[in-house]
Structure formats: structure tokens, C-alpha cells
Design brief:
The complex is a heterodimer. By secondary structure, chain A is an all-alpha fold. Chain A has a single domain, classed as ABC transporter involved in vitamin B12 uptake, BtuC (Orthogonal Bundle). Chain A is 76% helix and 1% strand. Chain A is built from 16 helices and two strands. Chain A has a two-stranded antiparallel sheet with strand order 1-2. The longest helix of chain A has 27 residues. Chain A starts with 9 loop residues before the first helix and ends with a helix. By secondary structure, chain B is an alpha/beta fold. In chain B, the strands form two sheets. A six-stranded mixed β-sheet of chain B has the order 6-7-8-3-9-10, sandwiched between helices. Chain B has a four-stranded antiparallel β-sheet with strand order 2-1-4-5, covered by helices on one side. Chain B starts with a strand and ends with a helix. The chains are: A mainly alpha, B alpha/beta.
Chain lengths: 353, 242
């Protein structure tokens, strides 16, 4: 009898490994190739987007729940890290880990409430989370600094800017690899199979015995922890937090766009989306300053993706390649007894040879 | 394991779908649940399997109270079901559809890698038995309606339920497949599984059922073996208005 994994093509097995290898090389080489500190800082921003989009994909990709509230989880991670460093004098990277654990703990009640609803209702609840936290962090100025912002002490005070960017580029790269590895492990696990069943048909999954709510909540907490790590690392890198930017619906929208563009069912989909959208955003900011052109372009891109490539770039490319290699299944016709006998005879002959 | 309900009631606004249903399905038999459209058959299935909560009443399975329990709890208690409009996981392959019914025993077990060889082999055996093994690696959405019906049943069987509720298994399938489904139900029943079947195809119902319960206006009006039901005037009245 064949194994489930036997159905996978050899190329499918090696693609994640090849992709990860390529990514490691790119992360190691890019800082040396970056012509100036600005390009290097852009690399840090793009990697931050890639971690955020990959973290979002734990929920969006596996369960199909489209959260626009992940910007708020990143903001919470950033503020928690900043406050633990600035007010509790914790070492920067201890603060980062503690902050991620705190956000993961907070994600349990948030998820408990939000994941009870599906579809558009879940999207609205996730937006409400961003708006509520924006109000809280703006008005609680005695703790958060309010609209004046929060200055986060740097982890490497004596380090010059270019070196600072280089170190954080590697840190974000490491975090991205960890997020991708975790996603890949979940993808091939039984737990992941249950999550994907939820994405396909939640009621049916539950009728087969999958405790859907527990599954959704667990993966939401994992996603929140990675998102908080990305937000916290950003706070340590950038050194200044403002509630308007940390708790923005736009952040969540960009994350969703990146994941959809690359392909939510694919390990590297959100990373590819982050590379495209992240670089485009920086380009538009440099070319057109603070004009709303980048927002218009982003909106157009989202519309285009939904209409032309609803599955994203990677699945569309994979589909084209498979068609070109003639691997698409040509017929689903039921086999006759003669077909089956012929097939078994062929299999026996192959086994003998 | 006997499936029994006591005074089961469910209303949607002013419409009473189930009106105090007292019914018992025989363990180890092929039971059928028939009745005109809107008589409450599917609502009954949905209540029993936890998809909707009854307003009042009790659902007992082997003496265990399943009233208002979540669908996955009902499934783990040993009650599997198919849906009136066949439901598969469209973007998963046929074998993945079947493997999705494997229950991870706790989170650590669930985090283990791909399914064990024994589980995968069992999934392929079910596909073979239902005649769709050649489609194991095809995405479920590419299968025909009849093949999806068989795949849905394979998934349910993979979960190893003792009692299987089939909601209109003959709906939209060709006559050859209809015969195959009927024979399959009989085979699986002979292996010890209990069936409760909602079906409008009376030929199929009468040919495979041991025990038939008839619903009308949200309550049972008759119960017994096929020969008795066929001659029951209340049943004729409910179906034919005579």
C-alpha cells in the first residue's frame, strides 16, 4: 500500500528544503551586497513584513480565518517589549521573549471571543481589536507615552547605524526561518491536517471528530506569539513607538495582502508577497513621499490579486508548470473492472521488475 | 449501542421542526427514517449529531447523554454522519479527505509528523473498498458527485463509528451507484455497524432496511419493519394525502 507521502512528487519534498537553503544564502549575502545603510534598513523592514505575514499565515493559511487584527498583536508585542525594557529594566532580548509570552497569554481570551464567529464577522471583530487597542494606548499616556510615543532603549547602545541594521537583519532573518520551520512542521502534522480541514469545511471537520475550536485557538496563540516577536524585534530596532502606527488597520491589511499575493496555502507564499509589497511600499514612499499613491496602488493590487490570482502567485505558477509538464489529471472517470485488472497486472509486473 | 431520543423538540421561530420526538433505533440494524419534505428528518440528524441544539428533550446513545454536546464529542462517542448535500474537503486530495478523520490523541500526538503508515494504509483500503482508490491523489473538488458521495462515506468510515447516519445517500446518484451504495450498506451492517438512513428513494429504503421510522410534521407517526410500514394507512396518508 502506498504511503500518503508517496503521493508527493520528489520535487515537492525537496522544494521546502531548497527554498530554505536559498533563503539562508540570501540572508547571509544581502548585508554585504547592500550599497548603503538605507537599502539595508529597507531589507530589515521587508524581513519584518515577511515574519508578520508568515505569522499571520498560521491562522489565515491553515484555518482560512482572515484576521485584520494582527497589526494590533504586533503593536502589543512592540509596546510590551518596550515597556519591559524602559520601565522594568529587563535586558532587551529577555524582554522580547517575555513580551511574546505575555501576548500569547493575552491571545487566549482574545481568541476565545473572536474565534466564536466566522467569515465577515471574524474580520470585523479583528478590526475592532485594533481600534480598541489604539484608543487604549493613545489615552493611557502615563504608561505608554500616548501620542508622544515611547522611546525604547537600544540593545546595543554603542553600535553605529549600519552595524545596527546588519545585526537586526540577521535577527529578523533567524526569526523568519524559525517561523517558516514551525509552519512547515505544522503543515505536515496531524494537527495541521485538522486545521486544513477547518479551512475547507469547519462543520464537516467537527462532524469527523476534530475539536475545531481548540485547534483554532491553539494556532491563533502560536500565530500571536510569532507576531509579537516580530513587533518586539521591530521596537528594539526602530527604538520609537507611536500608537497611530503600531495599532493601524493598514498594517493588518498589508499583511493580508502580502499573504494573499504570494499564496496562503504555501510555505513561502507570504514571504514572496512581503518581498513584492514591502519593496513596492518603500519605493512609493521614496518616489512619492507622503502622498496617498501607495495606498491607491495597494488597493489596486489587492483587487487584481483577488480577481486574477485568487490562490496567489506561487500556486498559480505551480499550476502552470504542472500543466506544461502534463501532470494534470486528465480524467476522473470511474474505472471499469477491466481497467482495474489491467492496472493491477501492470503494478505486479512493475513490482517483479 | 442504542440511539434513543426522549421528547426531543426544536423550533425555528414559529416553525416546530421536531415536536417531542420519542424514537429508538435498533442497534446492529439498518434503520430508515422517512417522511415527506419538511417533516423534520434532517433537523433530527442535526440535533443528534450536535450541529444544532435542541430546545428541550434528551438524546441518549448507549445510555450516554449526548444532548447539546459538540459535534466532535458526538463523533468521538461513535456516531458518524454524512450530509444531505454531500460535503468533502474540496482542495484536499481524496486520501487526505479520508486521513482527516484520524483522531489525534492529544496535542503532542497531533504534532507528530505525517500519518503513520498503518493509518495511510487503512485510508487506502477504504478508498479501494469504495472503488475510488484510483482517485486517491486527485483533489476532491475534481471528483464527480457520485464519487464525492463515496469519498464522504470513506471519511466517515475511517473515523470508525459504530453508528452511521446517512442523509439521503441516493440523492443525485446514478442507478448503478445506487445499487452499489445499497450493497455497501448491507455489507458494512453485516460487519456490525448500525445505520440510520434518511432517504426518499423508497425502493432503496424498502430493500435494505430492517426497521423504518416515519416522521410527519416533526413527530414519528409509525415504526416497524418495511412490510408493516408499506401497509400503514397513516404513512400512506402522510405521503399521498389519502
Amino acid at each position: 500500500m502506498p504511503n500518503a507521502s508517496d503521493g508527493l512528487r520528489t520535487s515537492d519534498r525537496w522544494l521546502p528544503l531548497g527554498g530554505a537553503g536559498l533563503l539562508v544564502v540570501a540572508i547571509l549575502v544581502f548585508p554585504s551586497l547592500a550599497p548603503n545603510p538605507y537599502i539595508l534598513s529597507t531589507g530589515v523592514i521587508v524581513l519584518n513584513w515577511a515574519v508578520l505575514a508568515t505569522s499571520w499565515n498560521f491562522v489565515g493559511g491553515f484555518t482560512g480565518y482572515l484576521s485584520l487584527g494582527h497589526g494590533a498583536l504586533a503593536g502589543l508585542g512592540g509596546y510590551a517589549t518596550g515597556l519591559l525594557v524602559a520601565k522594568a529594566d529587563l535586558p532587551s532580548f529577555v524582554a522580547l521573549v517575555v513580551a511574546a509570552l505575555l501576548v500569547a497569554a493575552l491571545a487566549i481570551p482574545i481568541g476565545f471571543a473572536a474565534l466564536r464567529v466566522r467569515g465577515a464577522s471574524f474580520v470585523i471583530v479583528s478590526i475592532a481589536l485594533v481600534l480598541i487597542l489604539l484608543l487604549v494606548f493613545q489615552s493611557w499616556s502615563s504608561l505608554t507615552g500616548g501620542s508622544r510615543g515611547l522611546v525604547v532603549p537600544r540593545p546595543f547602545p554603542g553600535m553605529l547605524r549600519p552595524e545596527h541594521h546588519r545585526v537586526f537583519f540577521f535577527l529578523f532573518g533567524g526569526l523568519l526561518l524559525l517561523a517558516l520551520l514551525t509552519w512547515w512542521l505544522l503543515d505536515r502534522s496531524r494537527f495541521g491536517m485538522g486545521l486544513k480541514a477547518i479551512r475547507e469545511d469547519e462543520d464537516k471537520a467537527e462532524s469527523l471528530g476534530t475539536p475545531t475550536f481548540a485547534y483554532k485557538l491553539t494556532v491563533f496563540v502560536v500565530s500571536a506569539a510569532f507576531t509579537a516577536l516580530a513587533g518586539g524585534l521591530y521596537a528594539l530596532w526602530f527604538g520609537d513607538l507611536d500608537p497611530v502606527f503600531q495599532f493601524s488597520v493598514l498594517t493588518g491589511s498589508y499583511i493580508v495582502l502580502m499573504a494573499l499575493l504570494g499564496g496562503v496555502r504555501n510555505l513561502f507564499g507570504p514571504l514572496l508577497g512581503a518581498l513584492i509589497v514591502g519593496i513596492a511600499l518603500e519605493y512609493f514612499k521614496v518616489q512619492f513621499g507622503n502622498s496617498p499613491l501607495h495606498l491607491v496602488t495597494t488597493g489596486l493590487l489587492l483587487g487584481l490579486v483577488v480577481m486574477v490570482m485568487p490562490d496567489g502567485v506561487i500556486p498559480s505558477l505551480v499550476s502552470v508548470v504542472r500543466r506544461l509538464r502534463g501532470r494534470e489529471q486528465s480524467s476522473i472517470r470511474e474505472l471499469s473492472a477491466a481497467d482495474l485488472a489491467e492496472r493491477r497486472r501492470r503494478e505486479r509486473a512493475e513490482a517483479r521488475s | 449501542m442504542t440511539l434513543r431520543t426522549n421528547k426531543l423538540r426544536k423550533a425555528f421561530g414559529g416553525v416546530v421542526a421536531l415536536d417531542g420526538v420519542d424514537v429508538e433505533f435498533r442497534p446492529g440494524k439498518v434503520n430508515a427514517l422517512i417522511g415527506p419534505n419538511g417533516s423534520g428528518k434532517t433537523t433530527f440528524f442535526n440535533c443528534v449529531t450536535g450541529m444544532i441544539k435542541p430546545d428541550t428533550g434528551q438524546i441518549l446513545y448507549g445510555g450516554k447523554d449526548l444532548t447539546g454536546r459538540a459535534p466532535h464529542v458526538v463523533a468521538r462517542a461513535g456516531v458518524g454522519r454524512t450530509f444531505q448535500l454531500c460535503r468533502v474537503f474540496p482542495r484536499m486530495t481524496a486520501v487526505e479527505n479520508v486521513l482527516a478523520a484520524v483522531r489525534p490523541g492529544g496535542l503532542l500526538h497531533g504534532l507528530r509528523g505525517a500519518h503513520r503508515r498503518t493509518e495511510t494504509e487503512r485510508a487506502h483500503r477504504w478508498l479501494t473498498r469504495l472503488g475510488i482508490e484510483h482517485l486517491a491523489d486527485a483533489e476532491a473538488r475534481t471528483l464527480s458527485w457520485g464519487q464525492q458521495k463515496l469519498l464522504e462515506l470513506a471519511g466517515v468510515l475511517m473515523a470508525e463509528p459504530r453508528t452511521i447516519l446517512l442523509d439521503e445517500p441516493a440523492g443525485g446518484v446514478n442507478p448503478a451507484l445506487l445499487d452499489r451504495i445499497g450493497a455497501l450498506v448491507r455489507e458494512l451492517n453485516a460487519e456490525g455497524r448500525t445505520f440510520v438512513i434518511v432517504e426518499h428513494n423508497m425502493d432503496l429504503v424498502m430493500s435494505i432496511s430492517d426497521h423504518i421510522v416515519v416522521f410527519d410534521r416533526g413527530r414519528p407517526i409509525a415504526a416497524g419493519p418495511p412490510a408493516l410500514i408499506r401497509a400503514d394507512e397513516r404513512v400512506l396518508g402522510a405521503y399521498l394525502g389519502v
